[in-house]
Amino acid sequence: MFIRFFRSSFPIQYLVIGLIGLMLWGKAFIMPPRIPAPEGPVPLYNLLYSLFINMPHLAVILGFLLVLLESWWLNILFNRNELVPKNSSLAALVFLILMSSSPVFLTFHPLNISILITFLILDNLMRSYSRTNDLDLVYGAGFFAALGSLFYFPYLLMLAIIPLSFLLFRSVKWREWASAFIGFLTPYVFLAVFYFLTDQLAGQIVVYEKMVASFFFYPIHLHTDDWVIGIFTLVLAIWGLYYQLSGPMEKTAEIRAKTYLVVWLVVLSLLSVAYSTTLVVYHFVMLFPSLTLMLTSAFLGIKKKRWAEIIFLIYFLLILVNSYFYNPD
Fold first, then answer.
1. What is the 3-state secondary structure (H, E, C) of 7-44?
2. How confident is the model at residue 67 (pLDDT cuts 50, 70, 90)?
3. pTM of the predicted model, to two decimals?
């Protein structure tokens, strides 16, 4: 039912995705979860946090609209680059479900913005594959990597996805590496100037030094519900990764390189978890673009479609029940 319906991509599919999202976020609209407090030097998230801390219902609405936008955008990104079968909207639904997989996610938080910025970076890097003059694209990717860190500090390590893309795309032009680095420095130059003009520069340098020195793996406190959903997701992701990398579909070198680029996001997300501090649970969201590709490949790759529908339905119902009966407090 689900998989067959979402194998195509028409406005009706996205309307249904929106309705499913309303179903998953229903309790949060009535009883909004807490907005996570800022951690570390994140000036842009500090600003947003001060705006929404006393408006939890508005924060939930904003978070929901961001997730819907990201679902639509990621689906287009995967379809355009042929990482999933063309004209499928299943990736949008899978991403929406992942972003709703824990009640604590059902509000506005810094990872909402970081994921959106990740899609900007991926879009720039994937378009650069077939461009002869791509300095503007790699500059933009570096710029967005720095911008994301102003909302969520561990996002700094996302800069590594750019040289990884150069290696995967077999690009050795030194101007690309320099352009990406200059793009990364640009937001911080403006930020340093602002701190200098407001006489905050010395104090902020100390804040950054303390954050860099706070490399530590915080304990992850999850309820049984989250562990069950997490293990289920991991099994499906491994299945999907195997199918994506060695499945029967013929893939060009370009498609394989772009697939590896998305998969590498998992490694960078795991490496940066040590800087997530008290936001360690939210940090899992950084895995969701890669997991979306893997899970979509798993559901589309199961030969017996009836079993694929059953597994998907069980997965969806687990998350739906969790969203209404699990108390994050």
1. CCCCHHHHHHHHHHHHHHCHHHHHCCCCCCCCCCCCHH
2. very high
3. 0.91
